[in-house]
Amino acid sequence: MKSPIAPHTPLTRKELLPQLFVYECGISDGIYIPAHSYWSWLQKQPERLPQLPHSSESYIPSAEPTDAKLCPESGLMMQRYRVGNDFSFTIDRSPTGGIWLDQGEWNALQERQFHDELHLIFTHPWQNKARRDELEQASEERLRHDLGDTLFQAITDLKAQLAHTPHKEKALAYLISR
Q1: What confidence score (pLDDT) does residue 61 get?
Q2: In terms of domains, do 112 and 157 share one?
Q3: Residue 103 domain flag
Q4: For residue 164, what are the domain limits?
Q5: Number of folded domains that form the chain
Q6: Which H helix or E strand runs over 20?
Q7: Whole-model pTM?
Q8: What average pLDDT does this structure show over 69-82?
Q9: What's the rounded Cα separation, in Å, for the pair 4 and 1?
Q10: Do 44 and 84 belong to one domain?
């Protein structure tokens, strides 16, 4: 098998986790996880791990390659999927079900315990949520730009306070009427 990043570079088989065999690119440090290897490993896991929240110390992978990638197994074009959940990268999936992760992406997923949910990322509900979250984030960034950091933060704090008060409607009515 050849690397989707460096087509003349053969991939090297390695054990990423106990009983999870992958193929690694020696040039890009990306990894290819064949579908059968992932499913075999996943079935041996005692339980799914709880997802951990994003932290400021979380690993951020390098810049996202923009070129289309070819599957090391089939030679067919891989499809790119949003990861969402505060991950800034996408991952590539082969028509064979195999998964390509660029350098650092496996570590980022494993750090927050999403590595046992790779199969879910490709589902419609996951992708729909990732799109909604992306649109919401863009909307918030636009509002922050239009209002400025100070006013945006004040409104964000007020929104959080109003979420926990039984008098939310009165407070909103007051804000609108003045």
Answers
A1: 58
A2: no
A3: yes
A4: 148-178
A5: 2
A6: strand 20-25
A7: 0.79
A8: 94
A9: 9
A10: yes
